[in-house]
């Protein structure tokens, strides 16, 4: 006899058609903020159902309720198994059914989200995958993450850990043909079970009443009484970000037990206060839990019910929310039991918490840690060569980031470790666009990168050929913007034996300030070549020793604004040679005095004036002595002689 879905206690709808697969039993686990899983046991007259026709397909199965309506369970087949045939030559099949959210366990990525809240990140991920059957019922003010990294983790793990961190829990609402993911952070999102009031019979022999509670165990667990955490914000390094929250659970002595954690992953105290409260609520959600069993077919995760009759009167009238449930349902085919009618059964085991308690998911999903360092390329706006903020931070493009555009939006601002960092003093070398940098991660956290170094690569080679010039060490820069290899500043060390050198190159100006003494010792020679002018200002004395050669290619001017100038040669000669041009000494005030121990001689050709200790001798082809008024020549002996002619002439000539 051909099988039919109607009338049956268990019903199954698949893309294969109405009367192809028949559900004989199912079991399933559901939990708040976890994926549900249903195991279906089926039978069919079709012995050759192809897996490709059902794996990945949406199916709905249902259980008949007392009033003839049906409770639906919906999901997608992620596993299909063809089993043996029974004695009626019908094949047994098994399937596993999961929510559409399960498909996020089958896609993993490495990507960066910037300036988004967790709900916005979730919406983007689900939307990119084409899913729309979800609701976001959010009441808390979730912070915007400047930088949030998904690193080598499935989309499901990524959004799960974000929701766990920010206290967002989720559950599923089932309907015929679909199920809806509900994500929320408040207890107002709880839904009412159709069986919103259930009884626990006082006589446990009355368990045959299927839609009642069958068992009820109230568990109370000691949890920490305080939660505290802190973090550090480099923009406010002296500001304490410590926050703490006390539990509302009333247990004696609980306040002595505190959980303290670091880091809290926040930089604003208000965000820290909210996160601390969420951690405390996470603890409180597991303090008061009821574990029970029932035959209530409409019990569902996030569903709220009220306790009616109960053998413990303290429980009567209280409302609870289901956080865990395991379903088991069966319907035999008549021939299996030798009966003309099918045997049916349904039961569940569940956990629930008082509906006054807001559920917070446990943080089970581990955040990926990056052990070791990575490298990345410094990026910035088009046309720029250096791009930093006021803290010297830069932006990078990670090699694994396939969504970044190699521009100023590729990452957050990343701090750069320098060899020294003090208050307006230290070392500062800004990474430049295109350079490859070494990136470490604080405590291995992908969300907290820090640049610790720089490395060369085939496009950014060292400034000297290696290994041929391996004895050279240098600090060499490049002029910006649009500097060429010929535009640079450099301090270079050559350590090759016998050719040691310290080389300094200033592309434009060099300014040296010495607050106290400056000592220069030159073992052999010193050559100073000045292409234009040189100015030297000495506040006291200018003393020099040894041989000094100064070559000035153009003008040289010495100005002493106030004070004296003296040149002293203690032993040796003083020689001034003027090859072309005039020599002029001009004194606006004062006198000129020249003194020599032996002689002073002035020469022009064969003419000369010589002054020595014996007297003054004037020689020349012609010597003229003229006084405008009087010429007086005196001497103890005065001799005037003209070897050819001696002429004395005057208006009156007197010779005595």
TrEMBL record:
<feature type="compositionally biased region" description="Polar residues">
    <location>
        <begin position="468"/>
        <end position="477"/>
    </location>
</feature>
<feature type="region of interest" description="Disordered">
    <location>
        <begin position="461"/>
        <end position="491"/>
    </location>
</feature>
<dbReference type="InterPro" id="IPR017847">
    <property type="entry name" value="T6SS_RhsGE_Vgr_subset"/>
</dbReference>
<dbReference type="InterPro" id="IPR050708">
    <property type="entry name" value="T6SS_VgrG/RHS"/>
</dbReference>
<dbReference type="Pfam" id="PF22178">
    <property type="entry name" value="Gp5_trimer_C"/>
</dbReference>
<feature type="domain" description="Gp5/Type VI secretion system Vgr protein OB-fold">
    <location>
        <begin position="389"/>
        <end position="456"/>
    </location>
</feature>
<dbReference type="Pfam" id="PF05954">
    <property type="entry name" value="Phage_GPD"/>
</dbReference>
<comment type="similarity">
    <text>Belongs to the VgrG protein family.</text>
</comment>
<dbReference type="InterPro" id="IPR037026">
    <property type="entry name" value="Vgr_OB-fold_dom_sf"/>
</dbReference>
<keyword id="KW-0964">Secreted</keyword>
<dbReference type="InterPro" id="IPR006531">
    <property type="entry name" value="Gp5/Vgr_OB"/>
</dbReference>
<protein>
    <submittedName>
        <fullName>Phage-related baseplate assembly protein</fullName>
    </submittedName>
</protein>
<dbReference type="GO" id="GO:0005576">
    <property type="term" value="C:extracellular region"/>
</dbReference>
<dbReference type="Pfam" id="PF04717">
    <property type="entry name" value="Phage_base_V"/>
</dbReference>
<dbReference type="InterPro" id="IPR006533">
    <property type="entry name" value="T6SS_Vgr_RhsGE"/>
</dbReference>
<dbReference type="InterPro" id="IPR054030">
    <property type="entry name" value="Gp5_Vgr_C"/>
</dbReference>
<feature type="domain" description="Gp5/Type VI secretion system Vgr C-terminal trimerisation">
    <location>
        <begin position="473"/>
        <end position="569"/>
    </location>
</feature>
<feature type="compositionally biased region" description="Basic and acidic residues">
    <location>
        <begin position="479"/>
        <end position="491"/>
    </location>
</feature>
